[in-house]
Description:
The structure holds 2 protein chains of 2 kinds.
Chain A: H1 13-22, H2 36-43, H3 68-72, H4 77-81, E1 85-92, H5 101-111, E2 115-119, E3 123-129, H6 130-142, E4 151-153, E5 178-180, E6 186-190, E7 196-202, H7 209-215, H8 231-248
Antiparallel strand pairs in A: 1-3, 1-4, 2-3, 5-6, 6-7
Chain B: E1 8-17, H1 19-32, E2 35-41, E3 66-69, E4 72-75, E5 80-87, H2 93-105, E6 111-116, H3 125-131
Antiparallel strand pairs in B: 1-5, 1-6, 2-5, 3-4
Helix pairs in contact in B: 1-2
Pfam families (chain B): MCR_D
InterPro entries (chain B): Me_CoM_Rdtase_D
Protein name (chain B): Methyl-coenzyme M reductase operon protein D
Amino acid sequence: xxYKPQYGPxxxxxxxxxxxxxxxxxxxxxxxxxxxxxxxLILGHRAPGxxxxxxxxxxxxxxxxxxxxxxxxxxxxxxxxxxRVRYIQFADSMFNxxxxxxxxxxTECYRFRGIDPGTLSGRQIVECxxxxxxxxxxxxxxxEMFDPARIGIRGATVHGHSLRLAEDGMMFDxxxxxxxxxxxxxxxxxxxxxxxxDRAVEVGKPLDENWLKAHSTIYHSLVGTAYRDDAEYVEYxxxxxSLRTKYGFMPKEE
Amino acid sequence: xxxxxxxxxxxxxxxFLKPDTAERLLNRIVEIGGIRRMSINGPSIPATVxxxxxxxxxxxxxxxxxxxxxxxxxxxRVQVGTILLELExxxxxxxxxxxxxxxxxxxxxSYTFQQGRYMKTQPTMSDYAKxxxxxxxxxxxxxxxxxxxxxxxxxxx
Lengths: 254, 157
């Protein structure tokens, strides 16, 4: 019988949203348009239009060792060209952001190739070859996995995911990389590490509270769905906890 | 530190306040009078990028600005989230709560106004070890007494 991934337990909307994001067969809803140049500006790794700096010569120009794994795994575009490894990092507010660090890592592992995600409590970084990164970043920003107000693209000084929101609904950012304009559109005025941009980059309007609540992947008893309301999820986590605790005693069958 | 125990209060807003709102709220509170000590808390907004690849570069931030409270100018260094108050006695507290009701009434989010112990009332052993016997007891536990810039004194009405 072929293995069919279940992606995760749970009967609530939050659990369903988690499964949708992880399932590569589900097409993520496109919410906004960002140009390739805008993505390059926010990432801040190279000047828009400049050539990709390389870490090694293109694979086609070098003799590769005789390795069975290389025969099985096709190189990504970035790896073929010998691009540098660069990153994008997201900070997700606990107030119903559409994604969150663990969720991001699971989702990226199911959907993208050649990545190295790093998961922390309030932020998630993903590293990969530069041109792959730009493609993946565009997808992460344009789709329902992003909200201009509740999610920040922050390479450093990420503090804010667990804090109260600001008066205008934006997540706290020490460096104020994105600003909510009077026309209701959020613009990035600094790149992800906090260096001012030559021109502001529009990332669209913040999504409304009801949409966020319906598309969040975070359990939050005060502003969204409470974790304890999802009996199936709690049962699953308790089972894992119980099994790993018991295994800590190395049980042996007599 | 004096022997008398002064009542302490704190105002916590459900969202961080913009400098203009903070200015309006603080002015309403200061007008009422009867405040011994006041501290404005919240996450820091540094003047320069503190770490990361852009470390040391200027950090222009629209919320890091000068506000006017009473007759004083005050450079905000935080995004205002909590206001701690120590009053001379309990009598102005109800007027302050009314002022908060008015200011937060138009904002669309709530706040809490609580009485409790939020500032140090006497130096601890560690304070003594760190700052010595001559530390300014009025600011102990509120700010780092070794900071070069002083606290702001807002005169009465």
